[in-house]
Design goal:
This protein is mainly alpha-helical. About 70% of the residues lie in helices and about 10% in strands. It has 19 helices and seven strands. The longest helix has about 55 residues, at about 40-95.
């Protein structure tokens, strides 16, 4: 629209000039070497303009001829570059598809067309890995280290290779280098943290954790949880070296960072109890019970309250339960202590409210013991035991990553070696079914009632 208006404006100006010249009388005389030319002024202007146009065209033609080799070379280079990027793209697609021959062929073609190793080394390395030639891939990854733009890719490739062959020392060094290059990479931070903790480098792992939190790669809550686990583990190692002060210091910090980490609370309480600080040990466990009741807290609490006799244990259990009275674990711990003291009515009072709704295997077994011990009602006791057999497994330490069930909490899962993987919960309930000789695993929901 605006371009058309611009052209119309130019034509209007030219038309105005032409009309103006036509209306201006006058003659022009030119004499040169005996020749004489008489013409009008307007015609002379037209001839000069025409000559200028012809000269401009000739100059443009000469310039085009002079630039022709360079232009053709640039066109040829752009075409090769386009074909090279096309080969690079096809090579990446071949890698993703697992096409070894296609990936290798396109990598070589891209290398020839692009003449830029920085662009093709990664594809060549991936093609070599796809072909099972880790040595060739390693050569390409090492070449990438020499270029700033590909250094991280080279480090990452070598790190993956080191992890695959189980060379933890080499992998840790490469992870540290990758973390310096790309501190915002979640993948790098996770691998470096994992390698440091596996090597027992708790201080380095804590520094890595701090950087990840500061840079927003991890939430403050997750960072506190992991720091608590690190402090707990450092306390265990300090105790192994008979450094009681350091063990107590790390245990206190672990409990402060995460009061829901039951193993840390138990460890701190035992250290305090061993030092004769029974009141402080009891308060630690009461704080933990308020945040997250856990069966592992009960025995250390009895020790902190010096509750050895059955009745003393009932008093201690009741005192602990007051810190979270509505939780099922509070009712169970008081009922268990009451059963031990043969206070059948007290035990029944605490168990019956949770035995009638969504109960657990532990509650059913405790109810069976009450029926048998208090009333001698074996039929009712057997009914509770039958119901217990149909309940889902009681909570245990279950690995969030692989589902492995452990009796005791550890910093690493013994099956998948994931850091801080254990959480307190119900184990997966899996039953094997056979159909026409083919074995399958099917998750079955536990039945709430004997006939359900």
């Amino acid at each position: 629209m605006f371009r058309a208006l611009w052209y119309l404006a130019i034509l209007a100006v030219l038309a105005f000039i032409a009309v103006w010249l036509a209306d201006q009388p006058g003659t022009v005389t030119l004499e040169w070497r005996g020749w004489r030319l008489d013409t009008s002024a307007s015609l002379l202007v037209v001839l000069v303009a025409l000559a200028a146009v012809i000269i401009a065209i000739i100059l443009q033609l000469i310039s085009f001829i002079r630039r022709a080799p360079e232009t053709l070379s640039r066109i040829r280079h752009e075409r090769r570059r386009h074909q090279g990027y096309l080969a690079l793209t096809r090579g990446m697609v071949a890698v993703a598809a697992g096409d070894v021959d296609g990936a290798t062929r396109q990598a070589k073609r891209a290398d020839v067309l692009l003449e830029d190793p920085a662009l093709t080394m990664l594809l060549s390395a991936q093609a070599a890995q796809l072909n099972g030639d880790e040595a060739a891939a390693s050569v390409h990854f090492h070449k990438m280290l020499d270029r700033p733009e590909t250094e991280f890719l080279g480090v990452r490739g070598l790190l993956v290779q080191a992890l695959k062959r189980g060379d933890k020392d080499a992998a840790r060094g490469l992870a540290e280098r990758a973390f310096r290059l790309r501190p915002k990479s979640d993948w790098v931070a996770e691998n470096l943290f994992s390698l440091q903790t596996q090597a027992g480098l708790w201080g380095g792992a804590e520094e890595t954790l701090g950087v990840a939190v500061r840079r927003g790669r991890m939430t403050a809550e997750d960072g506190r949880r992991r720091r608590a686990v690190l402090e707990h583990q450092r306390g265990i190692e300090a105790a192994g070296l008979n450094d009681t002060d350091a063990a107590l210091k790390h245990a206190r910090m672990a409990h402060k960072l995460d009061v829901t980490l039951a193993p840390a609370s138990v460890r701190l309480a035992r250290l305090l109890t061993g030092a004769g600080k029974l009141g402080k040990a009891a308060r630690v466990l009461e704080t933990a019970w308020t945040a997250a009741p856990h069966p592992d807290l009960v025995e250390p609490y009895y020790a902190a309250r010096d509750a050895k006799a059955p009745l003393d244990r009932v008093k201690a259990a009741s005192r602990l339960a007051k810190h979270n009275p509505q939780h099922d674990e509070s009712r169970i711990v008081v009922a268990g202590a009451a059963l031990e003291a043969k206070l059948w009515g007290e035990a029944r009072k605490h168990l019956e409210p949770i035995a009638t709704t969504g109960t657990s295997r532990r509650v059913c077994l405790l109810m069976a013991k009450i029926e048998e011990s208090e009333r001698g009602d074996l039929q009712q006791a057997h009914a509770w035991m039958a119901r217990a057999a149909q309940m889902e497994p009681d909570p245990a330490w279950v690995c969030r990553q692989c589902g492995n069930v452990a009796t005791d909490w550890t910093v690493y899962c013994g099956n998948c070696h994931e850091f801080d993987a254990f959480a307190w919960g119900r184990p997966p309930h899996v039953q094997a079914l056979s159909s026409f000789g083919n074995e399958t695993l099917t998750a079955l929901p536990a039945m709430d009632e004997p006939g359900g």
